[in-house]
Amino acid sequence: MAAMNDMEKKLAEFKCDTNEAICLKLVRFPEDIDDESTTFHPEYSHQLYGDDEVAFGYKGLQIQLYYSAGNLSTLFKVKYSAKVTEKFDCVKPDDVESKIREIIPAGFCCNTDDFISLLEKEAKFKPFGSLQHTYKVHNEEAGEDLTYQIHKVDISCSGFSEYHERLQTFLMWFIETASFIDVDDNHWDFFLVFEKYNKDGETLYATVGYMTVYNYYVYPDKTRPRVSQMLILPPFQGEGHGAQLLETVHRYYCSSPRVQDITAENPSENYVKLRDFVLVKLCLALPSFSCEKLSSGFNEEMVSEARDKLKINKKHARRVYEILRLRNTDMSNEEKAREFRLEVKKRLYGPYRKNQRQLTKMQKCLKPEELASHISQIDMSLQHEELEKSYQDLLVEYHRVLERLAQA
Fold first, then answer.
1. What pTM value is reported for the model?
2. Is 339 assigned a catalytic role?
3. DSSP at 304
4. Tens-place pLDDT, residues 202-245
């Protein structure tokens, strides 16, 4: 038993957290390669290395995936200080390298000198597609405003398919249920964010993030763009690029009479927060969402104007209304606060009302003992508690949007 414990301890020394072992980097200058401050790590690695996100067989494992900032030319290297050998009862180390090779496209470098030679060609890289929006963000570290551009691209753009293959590898590390898409389907639109910067008098571009949108057909002659994937790379997060990107995408599709509305596929909690902020910001300019109209309650004028001018569906328009109604409500006034609370809870109560209607139908067709069983599952006091919790959680979300709106 003691010998087994000793062996387990020795084997434990050869386990590595793959989220820490994987080192990602966007390289602009050769000196960035050895600069630890430019390194970032995945949030997830389970899709390649299993749910426990552990690689066995190495000490000091470092999986380097370095990308040139613009074209995303790739350097891939695996380093470690020690590796298990036959003395551990023929225990084999995990093949960490082949798992990375499954997701990165061919043409990557394994040699630092070769990668540096590719950096010298970055000045030739130019953003794909058509320019949709230019904006500036003040950078405290640089002490100046940095310029960013958003471009719209489709797969027919020369060189984009190869670039996208490299770009989408980031999804595996930062979107929990990410999957690669079939870019040969011409229903896809791509929106790319780039930083524009200077090096030795030349203008260069760094990849910041992107969004993929699939255009679904809606009978008889409309389309419904659905946001599929959205990622702002970690070095640029927290600077407002996501909001700029989503607003640009909305404005792009708003100009088309063929677009029914804009939706999202399985939106994450963070995406919902972002969408709330962007849609509220856009709806502030609509007459139907004026302070005077808000006090009269949610109505069809809001639904139709949000749909026609901003391609926002009824569900999202209602959410925008509630956020703006809260903004214009003096919650210290008991009567005003009560009016707001009851209106929101009336909407939230919808699923519970559905349960009540089903119960009424059951009363007509179920035996007494069967009915009693169903009734016991519907605890009214518990429903009221859940309703109140839903309302309070919603208030927190809405206040967060309004705080960001005040700072915009």
1. 0.90
2. no
3. H
4. 999 999 999 999 999 999 999 999 999 999 999 999 999 999 99
